[in-house]
Amino acid sequence: MKTVIVGANHGGIAAANTLLDHYPDQRVVMIDQNTNISYLGCGTALWVGRQIDSYQDLFYTKKEDFEKKGASVHMETTVKKIDFERKVVFCEKTDGRTFEESYDKLILATGSLPIDPNLPGQNLEHISFLKLFQDGQNVDRLIGRMDVEHVAVIGAGYIGVEIAEAAIRRGKKVKLFDIADTSLAGYYDEWFTKDMDHLLEEKGIETHFKERVLAFLGTTFVERIVTDHGDYKTDLVISAIGFRPNTVLGMDHLKLFKNGAYCVDCHQQTSDPDVYAVGDCAAIYSNALKKKTYIALATNAVRSGIVAGHNVGGTALEETGVQGSNGISVFGYHMVSTGLSVKAAQKSGLDVIYTDFEDWQRPGFMKKNAKVKVRIVYEKDSRRIVGAQMASTEDISMGIHMFSLAIEQEVTIDQLKLLDLFFLPHFNQPYNYITMAALSAK
Ligand SMILES: Cc1cc2nc3c(=O)[nH]c(=O)nc-3n(C[C@H](O)[C@H](O)[C@H](O)COP(=O)(O)OP(=O)(O)OC[C@H]3O[C@@H](n4cnc5c(N)ncnc54)[C@H](O)[C@@H]3O)c2cc1C
Ligand SMILES: NC(=O)c1ccc[n+]([C@@H]2O[C@H](COP(=O)([O-])OP(=O)(O)OC[C@H]3O[C@@H](n4cnc5c(N)ncnc54)[C@H](O)[C@@H]3O)[C@@H](O)[C@H]2O)c1
């Protein structure tokens, strides 16, 4: 059995490792247009902000690791076209040479592309996305220049907030623009985002919410950014307004989700039984919504890659759905969320209520202490938990994994009330903040 994997980043890598480690009779061919694989974008802001020394350790594997296990790996090779009837992919190397690969099974792991704001002046130099390792290198090089003083970041989502922090850490004057009325609007409710917004301002980031960027001005390099509220000097623009699935190869043949992602079943199988899709190019089942959605995260790419690998290898394995669990840590403030915020649930038509609790993490006699806030979102009628958000300057992140499982397993808010949660002064209080939040639920 020969499997061709198009795209060798997190999703493709997980599928390849699963096939190579568990199914020795498999022939695996990996094809990627980039020069590198396995770059952890989550490290870009840490590296640009000099919180880590270099980018070297942001790659967790390399081409040779797969070749040692018997795979053929073609880097700097773009799949230009796929003949799904004849089961052949058409490839072109960067030097112009072309070749074909036939397949028994095909795994599409072509990921996502940054959404293009499509604005006048966007071809000026010093305007960058922040997706690839190469984008990170470009932004890092520009931020290192003395003449780059003003940095404008478009999109106050995860990439935007993280890179805004990095630019401040490098001594730049930073403006952060978003059409939403807060930062991180897609992940948290206002009770949390207002803390983040204050923190960003306190650290010197000029936030411009509910403000739409309309154009860029300059001659060779970007010099000004024009919005519906004003016109500001800038030397560098970083655009981070979300991802869209990269499905150009299969869009005329495979069934697509409403945003253009490949529709897949619980085995990651597309509408063509010999073709699987994983990671950011595929839609995913949300246990909170109880339907398919689109969530671009490395964690989902890895999980879906493993599921596809096993199914292609011959072991039927069903994906369990996801909660879209996520987290951010900037200027020492940690925020984590899973499932749906109140705002996101209501937008999707769910009738939800929530319970909030804020307290000191540890008993008063402990020297080291910090406030913790938690919100649990649940359906009004069924009382099923559909989301949770937590924040603190202390690392409380592990708590969110429990909520992720609770959503997956359809636990109700009432079942959480008397759940056995351990107590140790180093970590929490006898009246645990999660228990207290659940007990105060209406
Ligand atoms: C700055 C940044 C920070 C992030 N931080 C986090 C985080 O903290 N946590 C988290 O869970 N997620 C994070 N993400 C999101 C995460 O990186 C993506 O969800 C993840 O990369 C998806 O993996 P993927 O393999 O599906 O797709 P991609 O990473 O997009 O990889 C797709 C691969 O396909 C290749 N390809 C595409 N088309 C072709 C073609 N025609 N021929 C050959 N090759 C092709 C590309 O070269 C690429 O290597 C972050 C993303 C960024 C940019
Ligand atoms: N810590 C993490 O887990 C992490 C870090 C980085 C990226 N990621 C993932 O990578 C993906 C891409 O990240 P991202 O930050 O680009 O997307 P995002 O969805 O996190 O944020 C996009 C932001 O852009 C805003 N926006 C949309 N259109 C706009 C416009 N025209 N003008 C101004 N603002 C606009 C949105 O309101 C939103 O706040 C996401 O799925 C994200 O979860 C995760």
Automatic annotation (TrEMBL):
Q: Which Gene3D superfamilies match?
A: 3.30.390.30, FAD/NAD(P)-binding domain
Q: Which part of the chain is the Pyridine nucleotide-disulphide oxidoreductase dimerisation domain?
A: 331-427
Q: Which reaction does it catalyse?
A: 2 NADH + O2 + 2 H(+) = 2 NAD(+) + 2 H2O
The protein's required cofactors: FAD
All copies of the FAD/NAD(P)-binding domain together span 2-305
Per the UniProt entry, the Enzyme Commission number(s) are 1.6.3.4
- The lineage's top-level taxon is Bacteria
In alphabetical order, the GO MF annotations are: oxidoreductase activity
Keywords linked to the UniProt accession = FAD, Flavoprotein, NAD, Oxidoreductase, Redox-active center
Q: Name one Pfam family in it.
A: Pyr_redox_dim
- Family matches, as InterPro entries: FAD-bd_OxRdtase, FAD/NAD-bd_sf, FAD/NAD-binding_dom, FAD/NAD-linked_Rdtase_dimer_sf, NOXase, Pyr_nucl-diS_OxRdtase_dimer
Family to which the UniProt record says this protein belongs: Belongs to the class-III pyridine nucleotide-disulfide oxidoreductase family.
Q: What's the protein name?
A: NADH oxidase
The species this protein belongs to is Enterocloster lavalensis
